[in-house]
Amino acid sequence: MNPDDMKKAWQTQTPRHRLTLDAELVVREVRRNQQAFVATVFWRDVREIGVSLVMVLVCLFLATRSAASWPWYLMMGAMLWIAVFLVVDRIRHRRGIPVGQPLSRHVEDSLQQVEHQIWLLRNVLWWYLLPPGVVFVLQFGQSLWVMRSGGWHVVFGAVAGLAVVLLLLAGVYWLNRYAVRAGLEPRRRELQELLASLQ
User: Fold this and answer.
1) Could you count the other beta carbons within 10 Å of the beta carbon of residue 151?
2) Which tens digits make up the pLDDT trace of 179-188?
3) DSSP state of 125
4) Domain residue limits at 155
5) Could you give the number of structural domains in the chain?
6) Distance in angstroms (rounded) separating the CA atoms of residues 56 and 178
7) Residue 142: how many CA atoms within 13 Å on its side-chain side?
């Protein structure tokens, strides 16, 4: 039998099995998936807020012990900004769909949550990295000014420290971009395809 005959024979076959899905089972699976995603985001935010608040206390302690306390107060403000931003964002984007809603409504809600997380991580530079980054630059600049008479090795040490901090911030930015590409965008495409098939 040549390939064309096999192709014709294959195409003329009638399907013996039909795939049927229990709608309630699909709704439960979408809701379970959505709840897992919401829990992951919630615990990430709890960690970020907790670390920010601990850093506020550390900065307050260092500000009371340091001769130049203004950089620590600025860092305290930057850490408070991050914690408040995350709390306000969680309050503004709180969602909940009552049980018994159609599957398309659950998928739309999941899609909105994923799109918001994509927006949040794509804009991490502005709300998360820039406030402490500016404070680090100011703090290193102030340190350089105080130690300007210490020679080139002091300048080199301060510039090297600043470079490490900036590389760390760039790494966090890159990891967030990677998380969007690797995790959130494929999830968004799946939800868009599911929503299109339901409509």
Assistant:
1) 9
2) 999 999 999 9
3) I
4) 23-198
5) 1
6) 28
7) 13
